[in-house]
Amino acid sequence: MHVFVTGGTGTIGSAVVAELLAHGHTVLALARSDASERTLRDAGAEVLRGEIADLGVLRSGAAQSDGVVNLAFGRDYGTPEALARSIREEGAALTTLADELMGGDRPLVTVSGTPWIPGRAATEADPVATDGPVGERGRKVTELLGLAERGLRAMAVRMPRTVHNEGQGGFAGMLTETARRTGVAGYPGDGTQRWPAVHAADAAALFRLVLESAPAGTAWHAVADEGDAVRDIAAVVGRRLGLPVASVPEETFGPFGPIFAADQPASSAHTREVLGWRPKHPSLLEDLENIRP
């Protein structure tokens, strides 16, 4: 399969490109800079220059492909306004890709987040949130999956709050960077809230499985660790950086504060049973031991 990949140099995307190439697919990847182009060519991918906001380029990439994996997201989400702008940009990209792929069997795999369900781990059957700071993203993905009735083979891989590799990435990575900046390995509230996690290489294996075999209109959970307590995550970060560990205000984490404070474990039992996905890389707490002081 010749696969068009956006976001192919990010934590998830670079792993997806490597996974696809290792399993006999070819890759056409979107590159927004010379550095990204070099990285992708060195990995063995073909390159299409442009950004996620270049809708004509996205349409061209999809037209040349047998399927699409959309992972690109705006680089600036440090404020509520910037986050909203990135979500709108992603939504316009998905609309363009869907229009190009509609009416055939070419798959469109996009990324979403695992929902948070009070009192239990979220499952693949639970709907994603359509309100809150990322509600528009949830609405767009829900709309996209609903297009299966009109002939679009779209699927979503729901990612946990932390996708990690070599101690970096995701919300745990943001917690680490905040600790470096503030001098405290902090967590909101009492820290008992749980975050699910997955290694980037395991997530990439699931994207490939979904691209190859999942039916239209379905959502899958790339969850290896059902939920680590945030204070346990902060404890490893603090130890690795030599910083104190303490509860801090939600506002410390900017627009993500309310999400950081939520208890949001997630299950991948259905994904594992149906698609045969088996995570095999280090857990989050193991991987955070790679953080350098």
UniProtKB/TrEMBL annotation:
<dbReference type="Pfam" id="PF01370">
    <property type="entry name" value="Epimerase"/>
</dbReference>
<dbReference type="InterPro" id="IPR051783">
    <property type="entry name" value="NAD(P)-dependent_oxidoreduct"/>
</dbReference>
<feature type="domain" description="NAD-dependent epimerase/dehydratase">
    <location>
        <begin position="3"/>
        <end position="215"/>
    </location>
</feature>
<protein>
    <submittedName>
        <fullName>SDR family oxidoreductase</fullName>
    </submittedName>
</protein>
<dbReference type="InterPro" id="IPR001509">
    <property type="entry name" value="Epimerase_deHydtase"/>
</dbReference>
<dbReference type="InterPro" id="IPR036291">
    <property type="entry name" value="NAD(P)-bd_dom_sf"/>
</dbReference>
